[in-house]
Amino acid sequence: MHLATDTPAQLLPSRQLMAFTLASHILLVPFGVALPFITLVMHYRGLRRDDPVAMKLARRWSAVMAVQFAIGVVTGTVLSFEFGLLWPGMMGRWGDVFGLGFGVEAWAFFLEAVMIAIYLYGWRRLKPWTHFWLAVPLPLAAMMGSFGIIAANSWMNTPQGFSLDAQGNPTDVDVRRAVFTPILGTEYWHFVVAMFLTAGYVVAGVYAVGWLRGRRDRYHKLGFTVPFTVAAILTPIQGFLGDSAARSVFQKQPVKFAAMEIVWKTDTHVPEYVFGRLHSDGSVSGGIRIPQLDSILAGFSPDTKVTGLTSVPAENRPTAAEATLVHFCFDVMAMIGSVLILLALWYAWLWWRHRDMPDNRWFLRCASFAGVACLVTVECGWIATEVGRQPWIVYHHMRVSEAVTQTRAGGIWTMLGVVVVVYVAVFGSFLAVLLKMRTRWRVADEAAAGAAAALDPETDTPYGPRPRPGAGAATAGVPSGSGPGTGPSEGRPGDDH
Question: Which BP terms from GO are recorded (predicted)?
């Protein structure tokens, strides 16, 4: 990526370190935001229908949710420190204006931690419906945390709620206006729905793979249909929200929109480029050129004037390389979103025809890849949002180079190397724990189906509350699918958690 010769040496390593940690953390965010809701949907189904299979899935998803939350604490805390360590210029000058968003996120984090602990604890110790209703605020806490972060980010994109003194420092802060910026609504709901789509498709994809491998039981059927249905319902809604978000960028950040669409000169009847590479002279190579479509998409008319990158001096806009990167990410999002809408319609058609889980192998293959595709769009969305704003860290008020730390570049490069090693170990441990949990659950299911087992392998699991003294012997040989209505332990469906 091109950097001007007069930029600080520490700018590039600081950007690379922030980009790596953010790109890593964002992979966990969909599960922190949406998995509590999906788990509670399955929990409600289990209680409402007295369904032990649904209860088993809810219990197991709650264990995954807890492990994911623990890993998210690590990666999220690193990001919090990096804001102050790498960008002290921004935090020092503007912290009083937009810092409330981070405060909201911190409160939501603590609430979520407490609620997850209560939810895990309650599987063995609370009455069924009491346990469920105590967990209902958990998805709301997760969404509140997202609100705080998106409020801060939307302020960086469209800053308001302050005045500037003679030295350029903010005064007369209006916190309400600083939080509720012009693009907060579209950015927040576009982000939240993206998190629900991603979590739903990823979880469903796990069970789609199992179904394709021959595990055609009700456990895999229910594990697929509930999260996939949630995601499929939201997919066309996300198409509308994405269009609204892009239109907000067109109105409030016209230069970023020009980067997203690689528009060089302000004009009407602007063509749309599907992919394509922008060069420093304004020419575009590769891709597919569709005449007038960009103007039509922006303002529903070919006469709509679209602001070009050359409307501002070169030092106040993304470079050609940055604009190409933003454009590619934006097109990847649009392409994957369109394919997911087709997948959701395919699912609806197959369900309407058979009134059952689709058994079409090509559909299931596509469904198994949908979650990975959503993770790609999440990464692309943040790249488009952050790189498209360059060179500003606070749009039109502070450049990234003005906010960067004075720490030597060599020290930041070393820090990046250490963080990469630590994150590889952390994510490797996360994957190892999930695989270990999967193995325990599979052995438990085999034991419940009639395989010989001296001890339920889930009774000694370290994920969640430990069994009460003497409970191990009492539960030896008890099928892991036991749940409400199956015996005297009714109301304690977490005995195999």
Answer: aerobic electron transport chain
The encoded tokens of residue 308 equal 């070009």
Chain mean position to CA 362: 27
Confirm if 212 and 368 have CB atoms less than 8 A apart: yes
Whether the Cβ atoms of residue 110 and residue 144 lie closer than 8 Å to each other: no
pLDDT along the chain (497 residues), means of 10: 64 93 92 93 92 91 91 86 90 88 86 91 87 92 91 92 87 90 92 94 94 88 94 94 92 93 92 91 90 90 92 92 94 94 93 81 93 94 92 92 91 93 92 89 75 44 42 39 37 39
Look at residue 389 and give its three-state secondary structure.
Answer: coil
| β-bridge partners, 103 | none
- Give the separation between CA 450 and CA 347, rounded to whole angstroms: 34
* Alpha helices in 300-408, H assignment, sequence order: 320-354, 361-387, 400-403
Contact assessment for residue 118 and residue 134, using Cβ atoms and an 8 Å cutoff: yes
CA 351, 356, 357, 361 dihedral sign is negative
What DSSP element (H or E) covers 477?
Answer: none
H helix and E strand count, the chain? 16, 8
| Helix-helix angle 409-448:52-86, to 10 degrees | 170
Distance CA 412, CA 421 (A): 14
DSSP string, 162-181: -EE-TTS-EES--HHHHHS-
pTM of the predicted model as reported, rounded to 2 decimal places: 0.85
